[in-house]
């Protein structure tokens, strides 16, 4: 179910300034207005971060509706969710072409700084619920009224809508908070040049010296010994008496 929630109007009974940007009730130039816009979305997203909610981003249509309503209140010197012509919040969304699926609005008067008005809203249950609602986009309005009881009129618009984008071109699914400026690049420190590392010199490996291998000694074949055969003694001629001859057989 798509819904709308209107925060109760807030009037500052006492004005307590803080360290945030303080509005000069007589004049706000373009730079001051830009500073206030940056401070406001940062303050809203800081509260959402505490509640673990995604950040919101500015939407051009919600910004226009919020600014027109703040100026209308300043002109009529009357703080209300209803415009001087009787317009409702839905009427103002239709005028800027914001086809909302969720919608909410906070108004306040008299606070001199973003910090003061945010403190007032966060101390009110209905306004706090709007700031922490399930929305994607955000718009802010601020207008001054001279010779007026309050002097300053604030408006916050919250909403979601198909086909809408963040101011600056982001698509609706990529809602991003206002980003802090990127730090300027610094000159990179000189990198040390690699020093040639000494390469180990190959050490000559000792070459094995050939060792004399024992040569086999030739085995001398045994020389045959002369056969010592018995030799028969010569026969001697008899010198005296006849003897029989002896002959070995």
UniProtKB/TrEMBL annotation:
Keywords of this entry: Signal
Skewed-composition ranges (Pro residues): 180-225
Q: Name one Pfam family in it.
A: CAP
Q: Which CDD domains did the record assign?
A: CAP_bacterial
Give the protein's recorded name.
SCP domain-containing protein
- SUPFAM superfamilies named among the record's database cross-references: PR-1-like
**Domain SCP residues, every copy:** 42-158
Q: Which InterPro entries match?
A: CAP_dom (IPR014044), CAP_sf (IPR035940)
Origin organism is Pythium insidiosum (Pythiosis disease agent)
Residues spanning the signal sequence: 1-25
Where is the region Disordered? 67-89, 162-249
Q: What ranges does the record list as Polar residues composition bias? A: 72-88
């Amino acid at each position: 179910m798509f819904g709308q929630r209107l925060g109760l109007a807030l009037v500052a009974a006492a004005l307590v300034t803080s360290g945030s940007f303080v509005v000069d009730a007589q004049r706000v130039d373009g730079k001051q207005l830009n500073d206030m816009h940056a401070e406001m979305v940062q303050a809203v997203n800081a509260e959402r971060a505490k509640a673990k909610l995604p950040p919101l981003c500015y939407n051009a249509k919600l910004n226009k509706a919020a600014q027109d309503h703040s100026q209308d209140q300043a002109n009529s010197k009357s703080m209300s969710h209803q415009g001087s012509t009787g317009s409702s919040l839905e009427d103002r969304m239709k005028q800027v072409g914001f086809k909302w699926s969720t919608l909410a609005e906070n108004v306040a008067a008299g606070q001199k700084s973003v910090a003061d008005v945010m403190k007032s809203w966060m101390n009110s249950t209905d306004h706090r619920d709007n700031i922490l609602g399930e929305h994607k986009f955000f718009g802010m309005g601020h207008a001054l009224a001279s010779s007026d009881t309050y002097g300053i009129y604030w408006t916050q618009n919250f909403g979601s809508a198909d086909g809408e984008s963040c101011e600056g071109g982001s698509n609706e699914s990529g809602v991003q908070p206002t980003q802090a400026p990127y730090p300027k690049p610094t000159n990179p420190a000189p990198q040390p040049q690699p020093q040639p590392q000494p390469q180990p010199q190959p050490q000559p490996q000792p070459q094995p010296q050939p060792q004399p291998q024992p040569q086999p000694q030739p085995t001398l074949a045994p020389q045959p010994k002369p056969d010592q055969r018995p030799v028969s003694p010569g026969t001697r001629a008899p010198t005296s008496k006849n003897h029989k001859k002896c002959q070995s057989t």
